[in-house]
Amino acid sequence: MAVDKILKDDASEEKGERAKMALFVGAISIADLVKTTLGPKGMDKILQSTGRGREVTVTNDGATILKSLHIDNPAAKVLVDISKVQDDEVGDGTTSVVVLAGELLREAEKLLAAKIHPMTVIAGYRMAAECARNALLQKVVDNKGNEEKFKSDLIKIAMTTLSSKILSQDKEYFAQLAVDAVMRLKGSTHLEAIQIIKKPGGSLKDSFLDEGFILDKKIGVGQPKHIENANILVANTAMDTDKVKIYGARVRVDSMAKVAEIEAAEKQKMKEKVDKIIAHGINCFVNRQLIYNFPEELFANAGILAIEHADFDGIERLALVTGGEIASTFDNPESVKLGHCKLIEEIMIGEDKLIKFSGVEMGQACTIVLRGASHHVLDEAERSLHDALCVLSQTVNDSRVLFGGGWPEMVMAKEVDELARVTPGKKSHAIEAFSRALVAIPTIIADNAGLDSADLIARLRAEHHKEGCSAGIDVITGSIGDMAELGISEAFKVKQAVLLSATEAAEMILRVDEIITSAPRRREDRM
């Protein structure tokens, strides 16, 4: 009787079998949820938020789907977390990592049912993961030395990443676009320098890459529309103090004339500030806050292009790209770093006017303008492109490449199976289970394409017993294809991250034997 009263009334605990059950069910159902988005023939999900706007997101990106779910199950939360980390770390493989962890747990469930201790399973998984990683390491191709080959590798990787996304129809075009953008970065992983602007209208084919930087703003009235060799001052300061604001200003005066005097003084203050700014010797002034008519007029008279309300992303990126710094005080011009660019002009995209800065200091910067039928399409296109850019920027640093299309999983499964045969004891069951979980990924790719997965995987396994084989699933023809000929490649870094994160997550969930849900804190308790 007394034991039950340790926890408060609303708290609950699940022990032993029931806890394991709850964890497995949660994790496996999450994996099944995103399973259908895997591979080139994977389908998308519509996520509708219950918020005020009832916004709708259409996406194929595992991390985006899972981020938007509100989940109660603790194991499911672990899987959501690994997909987020995968998204931040390498950008792609967010679905694969969840599916693999789910499959590992599904296999573990059978092992536990056969009375194998979770620690034994974990030890086996550890050995298997290490073995799988080494199997991949032996098979990687590294073309860093050969510029041509390396570039074609990058394009293949980009096409493979995009083939499961909305951009798959124009993947050659977008792969080329992404590779150009990343090559400009010259090996840095600063994706901030690549700006993506989404403009509804046109079709996805009308998207283009622009060297330089595009700011989504209009040029003010009566100001130069075209400036060469610009010196740019990027600022975050208030340029609206030339009028007495009606709200919040309390001034006691005895006549209307006095108000006019105060206004004149304010105006004079503003003029001095503008003169200070002009003294920097600039011909373009970009401000994050608004600029009133009076200072704008002063700038126009001085022949300076003034841009107001540039949003914060725009400002930070602009400063980064033109090599300037964001200033907020203007007393000593010599200490402020100005940004430079060769040409500022106004361009039209669709209906909108934008300002284009070309020939910027940081030659690495560029802007990708995405066009598309609707906002949903554009958002999804941006997510897909972002995945491709992340993967490419990682690959430029770590240039090891593997084939795709289920080939790496089969390679790993084969090695892991051989390890299972030579390992004595119960661990070998766990190692064998690991190999079955790996094979599940190509199986699912085939299933999503509506193919006969059992037959294909069996044939694939037979192919992989030959030396130096590069066979994988070709979902387009629905048979086994040569990945080298089809040019389906993946980055080694992505695969390694998938393998290790999934194993660690599965291991963490397997270690649990009790779930304690604590009672919510009551309002009265706080008094």
Please describe what this structure looks like.
The protein is of the alpha+beta class and 527 residues long. Helices cover 48% and strands 18% of the residues. It contains 16 helices and 19 strands. The strands form six sheets. Strands 7, 8, 9, 10, 11, 12 and 13 form a seven-stranded mixed beta sheet that branches. Strand 16 and strand 17 (479-482) form a beta hairpin. It is found in: Cytoplasm. Keywords: ATP-binding, Chaperone, Cytoplasm, Nucleotide-binding. Molecular chaperone; assists the folding of proteins upon ATP hydrolysis. Known to play a role, in vitro, in the folding of actin and tubulin. Belongs to the TCP-1 chaperonin family. It holds the Pfam family Cpn60_TCP1.
Sketch the major β-sheet: 7 strands, mixed
How far the N terminus sits from the C terminus, by CA atoms, comes to 30 Å
Low-confidence parts: none
Question: How many alpha or pi helices?
Answer: 16
Query: What helical percentage do the residues reach?
Result: 40-55%
The residue-averaged pLDDT reads 84
Content of β-strand: 15-25%
- Integer-rounded radius of gyration: 29 Å
Overall spatial form: globular
Q: How many strand units?
A: 19
Write the layout of secondary structure elements.
Layout: E1 12-15, H1 16-35, E2 45-48, E3 56-59, H2 62-67, H3 74-89, H4 94-113, H5 118-139, E4 141-142, H6 147-162, H7 171-184, E5 194-200, E6 208-211, E7 213-215, E8 226-235, H8 256-278, E9 284-287, H9 293-301, E10 305-307, H10 312-322, E11 326-327, E12 339-349, E13 352-360, E14 366-372, H11 375-397, E15 400-403, H12 407-422, H13 427-448, H14 453-464, E16 471-474, E17 479-482, H15 483-486, E18 489-491, H16 492-510, E19 514-517
Parallel strand pairs: 5-14, 8-9, 8-11, 9-10
Antiparallel strand pairs: 1-19, 2-3, 4-15, 6-14, 7-13, 8-12, 12-13, 15-18, 16-17
Helix pairs in contact: 1-3, 1-4, 3-4, 3-16, 4-13, 4-16, 5-12, 5-13, 5-16, 6-7, 6-11, 7-11, 8-9, 12-13, 13-14
GO molecular function, one term: ATP binding
Keywords: ATP-binding, Chaperone, Cytoplasm, Nucleotide-binding
Function: Molecular chaperone; assists the folding of proteins upon ATP hydrolysis. Known to play a role, in vitro, in the folding of actin and tubulin.
